[in-house]
Design goal:
Strand order of the largest sheet: 3-2-1-4-5-6-7
CATH superfamily of the largest domain: Glycogen Phosphorylase B
CATH class of the largest domain: Alpha Beta
Shape: globular
Radius of gyration: 21 Å
Number of helices: 18
Helix content: 40-55%
Largest sheet: 7 strands, parallel
Distance between the termini: 35 Å
Length: 390
């Protein structure tokens, strides 16, 4: 029987890619996990975890790859983001791919338009060593072809998966979260400077003058890596900013890593979802994908993924660094129920195409094609120049 393996960070590690991998694994069924464990992170103990790669132990990469090759795995799906793989620029992934003798697919959670020399070398090595790469947006696919000379026939676009959430009226959920009778703005995810939450807090005085019952909820714990290096400095800065603006009662911090069930409840309760990310090169956002699944009207900076997924009236885009434009968009949506409801409906319908069941079916089709492909297409090797540079 054909059997796949996923190589990635994995719960209990708290990161978006670990959550993505757990959800994809459940949707695919009958596979095994190779967990990437960095120093100081919790060790994955789920029964699906068959191998562990200690990212600071270089020999672990080849050892795990040889184990997969020897134990009957038919294809390997590698989750890639530079920060989750060890060594410089995450080049440990090249050690793993060089030792693998079964077809590999890489899901790319980051595709940089302006990489460093080391980042470009690692990405080029991944493209050369895999039978296909998966991205979650047309923008990411275009960057791979235009900037990295990737073969378009080996670039697959498969959406970020989302849970199957009901389309509900937010007011029916708010009271259970202690937010009854309020207009609710929501951002969620691991908290850190890359999220740009301060830009929304800065708009809240204007928003509250127009919509006095408006509240902005920031849902999520501080990113573990940031907490390890800086503690809660960034969250304290956000709290101080809210206090200085007189918005302490209108900016609510839910400081914990929430369960899927609790996250779903907050999404259902939100009137407007906000992703104010300052990095306009971001090519995927799991949080914005989840907002689509819940049918949320969204306001976002025009980073690559948001520009694509919020097109055709599914959301509002505002330039970064322009608080007036942000507050205008938030006020308009909070005040105009009909506009908000129409946008939410369009978002929800689009999100139905991103359900985990459909995403898993796309991965299964890709795995099947690789399984039946000629050997020289399905199994590629890392060029010697790349191996030597690792």
């Amino acid at each position: 029987m054909a059997r796949y393996a996923l190589v990635s960070t994995y719960p209990p590690r708290r990161c978006g890619i670990a959550t993505f991998t757990a959800d994809l694994s459940r949707a695919l069924g009958d596979g095994e996990i190779v967990a990437l464990n960095s120093p100081g992170t919790s060790i994955a103990t789920d029964h699906a975890v068959h191998h562990v790669i200690r990212t600071d132990v270089r020999a672990d990469y080849a050892r795990a790859a040889r184990s997969l090759s020897d134990c009957g795995v038919s294809e390997v799906s590698v989750q890639h983001e530079y920060g989750i793989w060890g060594a410089n620029d995450g080049e440990g992934v090249l050690d793993f791919l060089a030792a693998l003798s079964v077809p590999a697919v890489a899901t790319l959670h980051t595709v940089l338009r302006h990489p460093t020399v080391g980042q470009r070398r690692v990405m080029q090595g991944i493209l050369d060593a895999t039978a296909a790469v998966v991205v979650m947006s047309r923008a990411a696919a275009a960057i791979l072809v235009d900037r990295y000379a990737a073969d378009p026939s080996r670039v697959e676009i498969i959406p970020h998966g989302v849970p199957d959430l009901p389309f509900v009226e937010p007011d029916s959920v708010k009271a259970g979260l202690g937010m009854g009778g309020r207009h609710l703005l929501l951002s969620f995810g691991l908290v850190g400077p890359s999220k740009g939450y301060e830009s929304v807090i800065e708009t809240m005085p204007n928003v509250v003058r127009a919509v006095p019952d408006a509240h902005y909820v920031i849902l999520g714990a501080t990113h573990p890596e940031l907490q390890r290096t800086e503690g809660e400095r960034y969250r304290t800065q956000l709290e101080t900013l809210a206090a200085d603006l007189g918005m302490t009662e209108h900016v609510v911090f839910v400081d914990r890593f929430v369960s899927q069930h609790e996250l779903s409840r907050w999404l259902e309760a939100a009137d407007v979802f906000v992703t104010p990310y300052p990095n306009l090169d971001q090519i995927v956002s799991g949080t914005l994908s989840y907002a689509m699944a819940a049918g949320k009207a969204s306001v976002s900076t025009p980073y690559l993924y948001a520009s694509e997924i919020l097109a055709d009236g599914r959301g509002r885009l505002v330039p970064p660094g322009e608080p007036g434009a942000m507050s205008d968009a938030l006020i308009e949506l909070l005040q105009d129920h009909s506009l908000r409801a129409a946008m939410a409906q369009r978002a929800y319908l689009h999100g139905r195409g991103m359900l985990w069941s459909r995403v898993a079916a796309s991965y299964e089709q890709l795995f099947t094609r690789l399984r039946t492909a000629p050997l020289d297409v399905a199994v590629r090797s890392v060029p010697s120049a790349v191996v030597q540079s690792v």
